[in-house]
Amino acid sequence: MTDKLPRITASKIIAKSRLFQIEQMEITFSNGNEVEYERLKGSSRGGVLVVALKDPHTVYMVREYSAGVERYELMFPKGRIETNEPVEEAANRELQEEIGFAARKLTHIKSMTLAPGYMGHLTHVVLAEDLYPAQLDGDEPEPLQVTTWPIAEFEQLAMQNDVTEARTIAAAFIIRSLLEQRD
Amino acid sequence: MTDKLPRITASKIIAKSRLFQIEQMEITFSNGNEVEYERLKGSSRGGVLVVALKDPHTVYMVREYSAGVERYELMFPKGRIETNEPVEEAANRELQEEIGFAARKLTHIKSMTLAPGYMGHLTHVVLAEDLYPAQLDGDEPEPLQVTTWPIAEFEQLAMQNDVTEARTIAAAFIIRSLLEQRD
User: Fold this and answer.
1) pTM of this structure
2) Cβ of B4: how many Cβ atoms within 10 Å?
3) Does B164 sit within 8 Å of A166, measured CB to CB?
4) Which residue from A58, A88, A177, B49 could staple onto B155, CB 3.0 to 4.6 Å apart?
């Protein structure tokens, strides 16, 4: 195993937009190799993805327009964390904005990356339980379609054509493992 | 359900680097709302992620420096698809570059997205079986550490500190479901 971390010897922002920053870096590996890398800098606060239990056997999901792929995708409620907002609070806010429920029990289960080779972005997976109706206005351009899915059928979920996001599939199986361990 | 897809009424590239392009779009939803979006354009060919079976109970993994998070991450072999390269061929090339094996049987299982809201990038998950030693030179700045993981312990894999990538976790569970269905 390579124990010695490569050294970042230089870095600068080479392009910038409202949402994205592209950073160029010079990296020297422990074998002496020097390589130029590019990575995306996102929000340092990251985002939350919320798996909310409707009952012990069922989760809530939403169908949302996804501009990157130009179609509707079935996914778990998620969103950006606001400044100084704790992870669990962000999860509870997104739930209220996207599915019209709040949770009495929120548990941060795992922090995931999207593409650690060129993105630092973190998505915090939160399990939401003991729900009650509560609505907050979100910033969605149209109302999301809220739906449910049986936990016993996550294999089928993962193979749906409108379920492609790795975070959705990873979070589903992580949460199911956790719930099975509890039983 | 919203059946009518939003319309992209304008789009332009607003920033560009060696690896990334940032596209700005005007989108009109079926309710009349007009929203400005930004998305990343990556390679249109996408990438492959290869789950290679060492034996019926064990997969190969690699430990690779990940500049986005500035540490080593344990992951499945993966890489970009080259121009005109079929998915299975790209998978077999990456295997030979990263773990020193080729596969006689390659099966494209699922195409995943990273963040469909603002990225179009596709990662094709390929199951590689019936391996034999074969080495190709890759473009890695240092040799990857090759290791193995028991399929029966993917729950523990998903909770490792150096396993954060949603694609790794999603691919592991998808492949295990598939192998269980075969038995």
Assistant:
1) 0.96
2) 9
3) no
4) A177
